[in-house]
Amino acid sequence: MTGNAAKARTESSEGRNRMDALLVGIDAGCLSVFDRLSDEDVVPNLESLLETGVSAPLESQIPPWTPSAWPSMFTGVNPGKHGVFGFTGFDGYDFHVVKGDDVRAHRLWTLLDRHDRSSVVVNVPVTHPPDEIDGAIVPGFIGPENPPCHPEGILDDVRDEIGDYRVYPNYARGDDSLTDAEKLEEYCRLVEMRGEAFRYLSGRFEPDFGFLQFQKTDTVFHEFDGEWEKVEEVYAAADEQIGEVLEACNPRQVFVASDHGMGRYEKSEFRVNAFLEDAGYLETTLGGKGMPTWNLMRDDLRSGEQADEWEPSATERLAARLANVGITTHRIGVVLERLGLAEFAKAHAPDGVVRTGNEQVDFPNSTAYVRARTELGVRLNVEGRDPEGVVPEAEYDDVRAALIADLESVTAPDGDPIFETVAPREEYFDGPYADDAVDIVTIPTDFQHFLSAEPADEYFAETTEPWNHKLEGVFAASGEGIDASQSLEDPHLYDVAPTILSALGVAHSDRMDGRVLPIVEATEPTGYPDYAASERDTVDADVEDRLADLGYVE
């Protein structure tokens, strides 16, 4: 931040309380991206924060994906303690879309609220429905387009103040009616909305703590395959909003953190379920509901209907029956491609029809399977735990050990191992919800192989998502009370919450897995009552269909 900007920040804060701590969340932010943007003078405000304070790569968790990683950051605990492992939660072989109520651990802002410290939280993923705290919460990604906010009616006030406010773009990924320039304009407008809403709410509530998150810094890589000019445009918009927030709020301390990093996947996609089928662990079927994914529910969710679970429509059930007699949508697609109609059919066929009309995992009759690729792991079908489990509990350890050995032996076409780590889940998860995790964690070597859950004839294919998540994100801190002479000592995602609480002079929870980084004076941990969601009417409908648009689901 330049001297003039710093002066403007001070002048803008006269007559109002200064924010004690601001956390800027940048989805997929990482030093490799920041450094290139800084060299091109695209992000002067971020560059200033990194240069005037202390910064380092931030190790993410396993799995390093948005719906699990952000809750781990703002709770300070691993998914086994907060309960969210991916975009969907699983009930036997069925599934539901995760939401804030699935995160069953104290958040930064709920702990601060217990100490009479106020917060403003804007656009943070998996915060719908919001907690009732001293301050304001406007939920972000995976919530509905018009999310219930706290306090009730505050979103209307935001819109009255700044104009339009939306959680998602006004178009779906793959919509050819807009040019790339128009889509990028929409991205930047969404980024601008975040900053405007945060400044308005901060001025109104004068919080002790603020948390502002930017999501489009991630999705620009997914939607536009890492085209650098588009990345620059989105990051420039985010950096401008960061600068305006710093001027308006003049926080004493500023923290920057990301849920994971971003980079190219240089090697082939690996279809794990195809390997499991050939190895005798997995059965497939035709005529079922399809593979788990929340984008199957998108039409119902968009129209505001109940959205906890998905049941196929009459058309989708017909596709399943046709598949059961060998007329799969894949075979139909081959014929349409020969007739030159494949793209038309792809654009107009309901996604559920494609799924119910194709080969899928037979979960009840399989020994092991991948449910969703972003879980980064394989689940066993265990008697007494799963509805129709086939692995006797007494044989669980032996079956799992054998499968771990089989997965460790898999090599890519170049001869290198597919996985750098194949491990029992206990090495990564502990806590009351660890049983909801995969049984075997599978981490691709250097995060260079995209993992697919779809059944297939071949193990390897060209990577579906050439730009995807990496394990190293970023952490930075600057301002009053930040000791920049101290080493960050390999910070982890779990360290963010206890460090910020300590910076605010608040005791962190003794249940947290993270530690207080040495850049602030540590408070003593203490015990807190179990987290309990605020009493409210939970809204499970009207969640926007964006995971498929962003390439998170297949």
TrEMBL record:
GO MF term set: hydrolase activity
InterPro entries per UniProt: Alkaline_phosphatase_core_sf, Phosphodiest/P_Trfase
Gene3D superfamilies, sorted: Alkaline Phosphatase, subunit A (3.40.720.10)
SUPFAM superfamilies: Alkaline phosphatase-like (SSF53649)
Protein name: Phosphodiesterase
Organism: Natronorubrum halalkaliphilum
Lineage of source species: Archaea, Methanobacteriati, Methanobacteriota, Stenosarchaea group, Halobacteria
